[in-house]
Amino acid sequence: MSDNDTTAGTLRNGKEPRTINGRALKPSTLMMGHGYDPVLSEGSLKPPIFLTSTFAFPSAADGKRHFEGITGKRPGGADGLVYSRFNAPNQEILEDRLAIWDRAEDALSFSSGMTAICVLMLAYASQGDVIVHSGPLYAASEGFVAKVLARFGVRYVDFPAGATREEIDGVLARAKDLAAEHGGKVCMVYLESPGNPTNALVDVEAVRAAVDAAQLTCPIAIDNTFLGPLWQRPLEHGADIVVYSLTKYVGGHSDLVAGSIAGAKKWIDPVRSLRNTMGGICDPNTAWMLLRSLETVELRMQRAGENAAKVCEYLARHPKVEGLGYLGMIADQRQQDIYDRHCLGAGSTFSVFLAGGEAECFRFLDNLKIAKLAVSLGGTETLASHPASMTHLSVAEGRRAELGISDNLVRISIGIEDADDLIADFEQALEAV
């Protein structure tokens, strides 16, 4: 059957039609069935949870053929399933659907966002290599580069999120020189945009142009957790690999931990090979929960985004709020230009800069009644935290100041509650500041 087939039901291979009468179906539609065929599971409308560690072969010849594909003795790779450290039905369906959101050729799921990031970097970095990354990064991501990979002879050069093309050119030149000194290469450009927790944006198109001009063959990877998969599609602007903490918006209910990457198969295959060796794949139950969450991710993110716009409109006028790191209210002209070219929405996670410092932030946080004092973001409930003393405490104080992670910064992730109720909560909490 072709992609234009309009017959009711799913195709035998579980790939539903992508178009109907020439109309491309939206991801929110494809999330309801893509990658799964009820016929193969006793007609069950939803995929069952496949709790198995291994899969039976029809014959010894089939087993041999599979491992010939795995080992490369036969071209074309391996077909089917063999062992759940490599892949399993729930994870395969999840990965098929994740790829749709970013219009990617391939995707991989992991047991956490940090597992995805660590395996990704390890797949590309070797002794003497240099990673170029934007700043700020999530503290654990930055720590993995600066502290863990450094133990294995991998170095890094960083640049601020808002860097211009000329500044990026200079950083790449320094990185190439540093790699040459140690017999390595620039192995990856790793971005986080918007940056955590400041919402600083990276000009992905400028990075792409600079990497091409420098004749680098490394991938550009980007953590798109704050805006994806609804509000930004970095692969369309020059990135090669998009990274997510699925714990956040995709999972969206603060009841699971998982991660993913997506991109062209040529970039994903080396990461898959290392994941096959190391493990770290998402488990079947978590994959099943994520499949359920993907059905409503667009609705949840839209509601949260609408709520955030209303809440920020209130906060922007409050005398105890000195500023907002909200993408719907950008003051910097260059950041606004990047937003206009790259982003499809302002998101629902932002920073509030309160008058005062840590003490004032703590009073605000301790007086919240609806919003919960907790790390993470992108859930159905509103969360608030103090990055300088919590998620980014491990970052050196000077580095925090350089990145704009000040003592008066509170990070807020707006949920899907009633917006007016949230405003009332923030109003009474600010009275205590």
Structure description:
By secondary structure, the protein is of the alpha/beta class. It is built from 14 helices and 14 strands. The strands form three sheets. The protein has a seven-stranded mixed β-sheet with strand order 3-9-8-7-6-4-5, sandwiched between helices. Strand 4 (130-135), helix 5 and strand 5 form a beta-alpha-beta unit. Helix 4 (113-124) crosses helix 8 (265-278) and helix 10 (297-315) packs parallel to helix 14. The radius of gyration is 23 Å and the shape is globular. The N and C termini lie far apart (64 Å). Mean pLDDT is 94; it is low at 1-13.
**Weakly predicted, low-confidence segments:** 1-13
> Tell me, what's the shape?
globular
Mean pLDDT: 94
> Structural class of the secondary structure composition?
alpha/beta
* String of helices and strands: EEHHHEHEHEHEHEEEHHHEHEHEEHEH
Strand order of the largest sheet: 3-9-8-7-6-4-5
Write down how many β-strands occur, each being a DSSP E stretch of 2 or more residues.
14
Radius of gyration: 23 Å
Beta content comes to 5-15%
**What is the overall number of helices?**
14
What's the N-to-C terminus distance?
A: 64 Å
Proportion of residues in helical segments: 25-40%
Oligomeric composition of the shown chains: single chain
Tell me about the largest β-sheet.
7 strands, mixed
